[in-house]
TrEMBL record:
The gene is rlpA. The keyword Nucleotide-binding does not apply. The lineage of its organism: Bacteria, Pseudomonadati, Pseudomonadota, Gammaproteobacteria, Chromatiales. It is a lipid-anchor. This is Endolytic peptidoglycan transglycosylase RlpA. Lytic transglycosylase with a strong preference for naked glycan strands that lack stem peptides.
Amino acid sequence: MRPRLQPALYARIALLLLPVLLGACAGPGAPRGPLSDGPPRSDVDISAIPDAVPRAEPRSRYGNPDSYVVDGRRYRVMDTDAGYVERGIASWYGSKFHGRLTSTREPYDMYTMTAAHKTLPLPTYARVTNLRNGRSVVVRINDRGPFVDNRIIDLSYVAAKKLDIIAEGTGLVEVRVLNPDGETPVTRVARNDPAPPPPAEPPGAGFIPAARAAPAAAGDPQVYLQVGAFADRGNANSLARRLADRLGTDIRIHPAQSGARTLYRVRIGPLGSVADVDRLSARVAALGLESPHVVVE
């Protein structure tokens, strides 16, 4: 017959297990909320922190499944990172996750040049450039995320500070994978990397006027939400008119060559801020359309 544990002993065991259980809840790949994090309590001299140095590494034993699911959405890990270029919105994560395990089972250190990406192989080295001020850093991607709509990369605190996006919380960036061997691969463009500029259209063509969103400042990159791409111009026009009626903002149709055919891309914008991107993305989803994706030109 087993001896019966006393209530006081049960309580002690529960207290001992509590940190373990809490840590498991925030394990690798756990979603990170945008309002639940922050910078360290004291300022950091970022000039003394070097960029990551690309070197050949094997794929991590952890964090590289064929696919994984977070919040009901499935993400497929890429077979290769060669020639990868992506433009979009970056976020950052800091003190809340400092010391916790990343997806590669390495402790997250907000004072080193690392980042998280949803689908690139781990680890991957990339140059991240702030498209508004031209600053760039090299990071080692060793974590999964960010699991927030319209974000393409989650930077460590110091990487974000070097790019000067801490105050706003987000920034428009280009992510360009670096080859440790120093070779320049043929560029493979990500889904939301800008397409070549479309040919000039006559006034009014592909444009439905409506209440205008705040324009981006002169010289700044232009941000759009792409909500569809059609081989038939009529279908693109129909969707554009529907969106203009419902959203009350500018809808543009951007023709672009895809192989031997022309695709007509329906885009909202240009948009003046990341807040506008998030707000209109939610409104598009409420209309029952597929999630739009961010295009930065």
